[in-house]
Amino acid sequence: MSGHPSGPTGHTRVAAVIGEPVRHSLSPALHNAAFSHCGLDWVYVALPVGEGRGADAVDAMRVFGLDGLSVTMPHKQAVAAAVDELSPAARMLGAVNCVQRVGDRLVGHNTDGAGLVASLRHQLGFQPEGAEVVVLGAGGAAAAASAALVDDGARVTIVNRSRQRAETLASAIGDGATAGETHDVKRASLVVQATPLGMGSDDALPIDPGLLSSHQLLVDLIYHPLETPLIAQARSRGVRAVNGVGMLLFQAGLQFTLWTERPAPIDVMAEAVGFRL
Ligand code: NAP
User: Fold this and answer.
1) 139 lines ligand 1 (CB under 6 A)
2) Any catalytic annotation for residue 76?
3) pLDDT in tens, 3-12
4) Is the shortest distance between the CB of 198 and ligand 1 below 6 Å?
5) Average pLDDT value for residue range 203-217
6) Which end of the chain is more exposed for a tag (fewer CB within 10 A), N or C?
7) What is the pLDDT of residues 248-260, one digit of tens each?
């Protein structure tokens, strides 16, 4: 089914991603495939917006009447300060990756953490309620993951190169989150790898894979490469391990649903960018 078989018209609704760089973004392919599949007369484009212009872009969203906005580096904080309202997750993280129009108001969301949890439920059958989780890293992705997992009832131990940053993040999240050390990996049912280690071919492993055992689950948030050395090591020890593709797709699916009020066709979105779940 196609939303606009003869191309956009005067009625076509527009969504966009802003960022710098943004031309490499997979989001236009993901969202346009979903719009088309659902028969929605929407189009999604990538708009390069330079550093320091995030708040201007939110004003432009009002002026142009854009119906959805995705936000990537380096604008997530500036957009959080410029919208009319924040979801609880966006407020906790101080970062917005999705703007939803509700009447005349613009509401900022952060779908990364909820997208990760949805992908883990779907791909691994993981139930966060009461689970022990170790998150490696304390940057933006680790913060989103930890906050969403705690929200859904997990106990999260944050392990980071700079311990102080792990402690700051744990206390910002509050009950359910603590800072820990690498050996805490041994008692986790799920390990979330949220550092960039594994993207470069010469990178060290983020943890000693000997700490992992076959009853555990691992998600490495990296999706380029699709199999990091840690995922390969984990799998060779019988650990069920997935990459960051699921998080990427499910966080985009949540954005699609916020804008269109429809369930997202995740498999269609995956196929559009050549991924398999
Ligand atoms: P970030 O904010 O820059 O945080 C990076 C974290 O990694 C920090 O905690 C940092 O520790 C740690 N780190 C960096 N280099 C390290 C090293 N050499 N040794 C040990 N720790 C190191 O980055 P981010 O935005 O959170 O992204 C992290 C990863 O998640 C990236 O690989 C990104 O591709 C992935 N990601 C995936 C998705 C998805 O949808 N799948 C979404 C977002 C991010 P310090 O605090 O000590 O510096």
Assistant:
1) yes
2) yes
3) 555 789 999 9
4) no
5) 98
6) N
7) 999 999 999 999 9
